[in-house]
Amino acid sequence: MIRPEEVYCIGKFTRTHGVQGEMALAFTDDVFDRVDCPYLVCSMDGILVPFFIEEYRFKSRDVALIKFERIDTSEAAAMFTNKEVYFPKSYAEQAEDGEYSWQYFVGFEAEDATHGHLGELVDVDESTVNTLFVVERPDGEELLIPAQEAFIEDIDHDERIIKFNLPEGLLE
Fold this sequence. Notes:
mainly beta, 172 residues, 6-stranded antiparallel barrel, 3 helices, 6-stranded mixed sheet, 2 domains, Elongation Factor Tu (Ef-tu), domain 3, SH3 type barrels
């Protein structure tokens, strides 16, 4: 059984494409193209289910046409419309350094060299030019940290900790 903490969202199926069961995936992370993973995950009736990729091709910079095995008609593909698509974190860890999307880090604990434990990284805000990590502090407050490689000191994938060295005054 796939647990929610084992996957992260990489996009959403927006519509069917053609009559052969292809679906348009609006993606925020093209990890499925960079890492050899045979499946993507969708939530079906509250259960995370793997669906094996038969083939895919890019339609644009942020849309791919995906065809799953055993999904051979537009009617069968229609059940995926507006479904979020998830990628297994265990496969994403195979990506070369620097190839992770910011979304991959949701669920990691955030630590700072000076301030210690900051909280859990619960979201990534990409609505502005500057991408921000949203960290939930132990007291329930939200902390926004710029998603800048220069601020990241170390990443422990096994313990799921991202260590920052933040500039003075950023947390105030």
